[in-house]
Design brief:
Elements lengths: L6 E6 L5 E7 L2 E8 L12 H23 L8 E7 L3 H18 L3 E5 H7 L15 E6 L4 E8 L2 E7 L5 H11 L7 H8 L22 H17 L3 H4 L1 H27 L3 E5 L6 H13 L3 E3 L10 H13 L17
Parallel strand pairs: 1-4, 4-5, 6-9, 9-10
Antiparallel strand pairs: 1-2, 2-3, 6-7, 7-8
């Protein structure tokens, strides 16, 4: 039974984005994200710098989220926060703030699994998104995770396939770094790929049994290929950037969807969703939509603002856990690694 006017403040701080959102039931009233440019010169996220930036950002971000939502702290019914997985120092900032604020307001505290939140972002009330029916498969792809999840209900999620080494998002960023593109490189590969030939260059694909993934071999293949090509022609990357990006992107998408197709065929599930930061990739989105025509799937793709790390996805999990009276106690802590 749906409660009336449940207001939840949600906090996300698992990596390098400080985000706060206010939810009214399943509707987003505000969803603010403060990024951290400090990592760009390092070519990747520096954990210590990330936690320091979270400490600086969290108070103004929460304040602004409440202001935009026009909700006073005293009107909140609960506070939801990311308890893991993620960078421990970053998680600790969000966890400590959430616990302190919940204690001060004397309202329930709700701990949220970051990856479950990516999946359940599909259930945010938004006219631009359709909600998948249970059961469905969700390809969850980010810089740190690559998973195929069978979703039976809001709280029954089973990982049936995962990467055994590197994540797809990491492969995108590593390939971009090898080509000299700035961090984060994944979106830039997507941008240049739209002007390139995806069949121009061929890279190795893993042969892993079942639904699991591997991307370490692909990264090595790209590295060795470019080292050899640049040795023969120092301007090779510059001269072929669009085709390289298109070919790399096509290879990663092919790897991702081959396993997803196998999982859909063997489970008989044809409702297929995307989630995670890499689900913003235009090539992956288009490839999934194409399979609606060729394989009879029904595809579910989140709005761009709900793909990368954001607090609204934490808030929707918090809402369903609130309805289920599933609250955390004061001893709850942050966990860099955690299972479902």
């Amino acid at each position: 039974m749906q409660a009336k006017n449940v207001f939840i403040l949600a906090i996300e701080s698992s990596c390098d984005d400080t985000s706060a959102a206010v939810m009214q039931n399943g509707t987003v009233l505000s969803n603010l994200v403060a990024g951290q440019k400090v990592h760009e010169s390092f070519g990747g996220v520096v954990p210590e710098l990330a936690s320091r930036a979270h400490q600086k950002n969290i108070v103004p971000v929460v304040h602004e989220a409440l202001k935009v939502a026009k909700i006073a702290p005293e009107s909140l019914n609960a506070i939801a926060f990311t308890s893991g997985p993620g960078l421990l120092g970053s998680l600790l900032v969000g966890t400590s703030f959430a616990k302190s604020m919940a204690m001060a307001l004397q309202i329930p505290l709700i701990d949220v699994h970051h990856m479950q939140a990516h999946v359940l972002a599909h259930f945010i009330d938004d006219d631009k998104m359709k909600k998948p029916p249970f059961p469905f498969l969700c390809l969850t792809v980010s810089g740190g995770h690559t998973q195929i999840v069978r979703v039976k209900n809001y709280f029954d999620l089973e990982i049936i396939g995962k990467t055994i080494d590197d994540a797809a998002g990491e492969a995108f960023d590593k390939a971009a770094k090898i080509m000299g593109l700035p961090y984060p490189g994944g979106p830039l590969i997507d941008k240049y790929a739209q002007q390139g030939n995806p069949l121009k260059f061929t890279f190795s694909k893993p042969n892993i049994k079942g639904y699991d993934y591997s991307f370490s071999g692909l990264k090595t293949s790209i590295l060795y290929f470019l080292q050899k090509a640049v040795k023969e022609n120092p301007d090779f990357i510059k001269d072929n950037l669009a085709d390289l990006c298109a070919s790399i992107q096509q290879t990663i998408i092919t790897i991702l969807l081959k396993k997803l197709e196998l999982a859909a065929k063997e489970t008989g599930i044809k409702h297929i969703a995307l989630a995670g930061g890499v689900s913003a990739n235009s090539g992956l989105r288009n490839a999934l939509l194409q399979r609606e025509k060729t394989l009879g799937w029904t595809a579910y793709i989140p709005n761009f603002e709900y793909t990368t790390d954001n607090a609204a996805m934490i808030g929707i999990v918090g809402y369903y856990k609130f309805l289920d009276n599933n609250f955390a106690d004061s001893n709850v802590g942050a966990q860099a690694r955690m299972s479902w």
